[in-house]
Amino acid sequence: MIILGLDQTGKSTLLKRMVDSVRSIREDFQMESTNGFNYINLTITRNAYSIWDLGGDKVNKDFWNIFYRTLNIKLVIYVIELTEENILPNLQELIILMNEESLKESRFYVIFNCFMKPGQTFVKDDYTQKAKLIVSRIKEYPIYRINERFQYDIIDLHKSTFTESDVDSILSYSFKDID
Ligand SMILES: Nc1nc2c(ncn2[C@@H]2O[C@H](COP(=O)(O)OP(=O)(O)OP(=O)(O)O)[C@@H](O)[C@H]2O)c(=O)[nH]1
Ligand SMILES: [Mg+2]
Fold first, then answer.
1. Which residues of the chain have pLDDT under 50?
2. What CATH number should be reported for the domain holding residue 152?
3. Quick check: 117 and 81 in contact, CB under 8 A?
4. 105 lines ligand 1 (CB under 6 A)
5. Structural domain contains residue 41
6. Of 55, 127, 130, 166, whose CA is between 20 and 30 Å from 46?
7. CA-CA-CA-CA torsion for 78, 18, 106, 124, nearest 10 degrees?
8. Tell me: the pLDDT tens digits for 121-173?
9. What is the pLDDT of residue 178?
10. How far is the CA of 154 from the centre of ligand 1 (A)?
11. Dihedrals φ, ψ of 40, to 5°?
């Protein structure tokens, strides 16, 4: 599986949280922008997952297609940062991926990371509203029956602690039956 989304949205933070969940630790940390990729193998409830976390800035983004066209991607975990003023470019990237031929068999799991910059206050309803709006936009694209492959969560990656079962429920989405 592959973690994508524009730069500074929290992809590597998410990866770190996932790894920590298996080790049952929770530590504060500062992430550096990813140049290239991070790769880990994670075994959760006897399922082994290979996870790629790619850098999301302009330069790194040009290399995403090499990864998803070469690897057999079962799940795209897509991170959108909701407090970002303009989330449109990140939404547009997601739509491009959903229309990508080599990802047409992949499932998408969208995570809305929501972290406050100084001076911002967390108003859950506002961000839920924003997330719902994005979801409705994505569902306008019926090409690959996106609604059946689509699920989303709103979390603050720094505040939340992931348990193994949280991570399992995200990762196992790649093979779970969907009604
Ligand atoms: N407070 C807070 N800070 C966060 C959260 N998620 C990410 N950050 C911070 O935001 C910055 C970017 O996070 P990363 O996880 O490196 O983002 P990324 O998407 O991997 O970025 P690129 O590798 O550049 O594409 C880091 O300084 C993180 O510490 C969060 O949930 N809360
Ligand atoms: Mg990163």
1. 143-148
2. 3.40.50.300
3. no
4. no
5. yes
6. 55
7. -40
8. 777 788 888 888 888 888 776 544 444 456 677 777 877 778 888 888 888 88
9. 57
10. 15
11. -140, 155
